[in-house]
Amino acid sequence: MILDAIKSGNQTLRADLQVVADLVEPGSRVLDVGCDDGSLLAYLNAHKQVDGRGVEISQAGVNSCVAHGLSVIQGDVDTDLKNYPSNAFDYVVLSQTLQATNNPKFVVSEMVRIGRRAIVSFPNFGFWRVRLHLLLQGRMPVTETLDYAWYETPNIHLCTLKDFVATCREVGVTIEKGIALARTGRTGNISPTSFFANFLAEQGVYLLKRNGD
Fold first, then answer.
1. 16, exposed or middle or buried, with CB in 10 Å at 0-12, 13-18, 19+?
2. Is the CB of residue 87 less than 8 Å from the CB of residue 116?
3. What local confidence, expressed as pLDDT, does residue 190 receive?
4. pLDDT tens digit string along 119-157?
5. pLDDT over 70 percentage in the chain
6. Where are the domains of the chain?
7. Which CATH number fits domain 2-210: 3.30.300.30, 3.30.470.10, 2.80.10.50, 3.40.50.150?
8. What angle do CA 95, 70, 49 make, to 5 degrees?
9. Gap between the Cα atoms of 133 and 42, Å rounded
10. pTM for the whole thing?
11. CA gap 28, 207 in Å, rounded
């Protein structure tokens, strides 16, 4: 029902997914890695006429996507990206999943190999509420974007916006555009590489490409 509502325009996307969708050109070939329930693919198929494919580790997620006519297979981002040929897609998307991967540097490198562009969104561990919680409580924070207790979280490689920028530099990836999302979901007109973005943004969304492309 939710995917049908998204297709029809009667339900909005999650804030970071809407930013991702706005970065995708109509008619593009898109691979959504870790596509969850297929909300982004459903939106892109309906509103931007993309040739969309998805990879999802959860069988329940795959079943839901397939039931709604989406082309999604079961797979693991940490092991299966190597099976895709280079330049097979215009965009490879990874939304709110990078911090749950075993080897984020490898994943980012593979994304820009498979696609002409990659789009990554993730929660910012440098967000001021996270810092304040650690300072005052001395315990791992639980927020809207980091909504698991430490003992059950799938997030094994949390990072800040500055960490991600440094990692892209290390693996030879160019950041074409960075967008800082505030807690309200609104985007600010500040550079995501700045101290203020790293302090104020609850999430980051980045458009990437290989160096030299």
1. buried
2. yes
3. 54
4. 999 999 988 888 988 888 888 877 777 777 877 777 788
5. 89
6. 2-210
7. 3.40.50.150
8. 80
9. 36
10. 0.89
11. 15
